[in-house]
Amino acid sequence: MDLSPLKAALADVVAIPVTPFAEDGSIDVAEHRALLRRLLDGGVRIVTPNGNTGEFYALTPDERRTVTELTVDEARGRATVLVGVGHDVPTAVAAAEHARDTGAEMVMVHQPVHPYVSQDGWVDYHRAIAEAVPELGVVPYIRNPLLAGERLVELADSCPNVIGVKYAVPDAARFGAFARDAGLDRFVWVAGLAELYAPSYFATGATGFTSGLVNIAPGVSLTMLEALRAGDYAAAMKIWEQIRRFEELRADGQSANNVTVVKEALASLGLCRRDVRAPSRVLPEAQRAEVANQVAGWSI
Q: How far is CA 70 from CA 48, 97, 219, 224, in A?
């Protein structure tokens, strides 16, 4: 199986769409489709339904399947779909198989949520998922700074469909070392901490980055990507300065308001409700104006 088209698709702005909720708390399917079309019309070429910005851990299994299905339906022929899967092994495998059967091309495996994660167990967890869907590209989501690059090699040696990594440890030096230990040219390296970390991660080997901000202003994220691809770090950092405060608001308090700030920005533009699910919470009234002011200064 030729995985090079999937690798090429992954080296891009990997959009993580929000999941909009209706007044009754259910997923607003019509609004979700409208937001996806806005991303696609804005030039986005790869989307991750059921990512953290989509409130993956707050959705029910049925809701996660709905989000996968409507995303594949909207993206078909326009963008690659990289579906977030996770939880226990049977649940993750079932979600990966559903993604395959729905028509997605890749799955992103969320960091295992467990108080006791051994490095051998990390390999076993991802191997079980990757072996279940050999037709799909598989992208581990790494947030563990202790994981050794050699473990990724071990996984990929037995599962050649493991083609890339979403690396989300906030340490560019650690990322650079991990990527080289695992094989800089063997995998597609995606900066998993969005625009704020994209320049430093590109300088050490990344060729793509994830984005929640792209929900609001696709052009901003795609322009940063163009600058980074061209090696024009001065231009990339001009954009970085423009969006810095917005991303700092999302990252504050161990990313307590990561999704909340994105939805608040969308609400300020009249694009969706600001509602989020626990354990996230909507912004206090006093902070909403700052988010709206940040977005007002962008070219949207």
A: 12, 16, 23, 28
Contact 104, 135 (CB under 8 A): no
Q: Are 288 and 257 in contact (CB under 8 A)?
A: no
- At residue 143, what are phi and psi to the nearest 5 degrees? -120, 0
For residue 217, the Cα-to-chain-centroid distance in whole angstroms is 16
Report the distance separating Cα 282 and Cα 300, nearest Å: 23
- Structure confidence at residue 298 (pLDDT): 86
- Token readout for 25 is 């708390």
Closest CA to 255 of 299, 214, 194, 209: 194
Tally the residues of the chain: 300
CA atoms of 245 and 213, how far apart (whole Å): 12
Amino acid at 148: A
Residue with tokens 């001009």: 238
Question: What are the helix and strand counts (H, E) for the chain?
Answer: 12, 8
Question: Following CA atoms 181, 182, 185, 187 in sequence, which dihedral angle do they give, to the nearest 10 degrees?
Answer: -150
pTM score, whole prediction = 0.96
pLDDT given at position 286: 87
Backbone φ, ψ for residue 275 (5° rounding): -60, 135
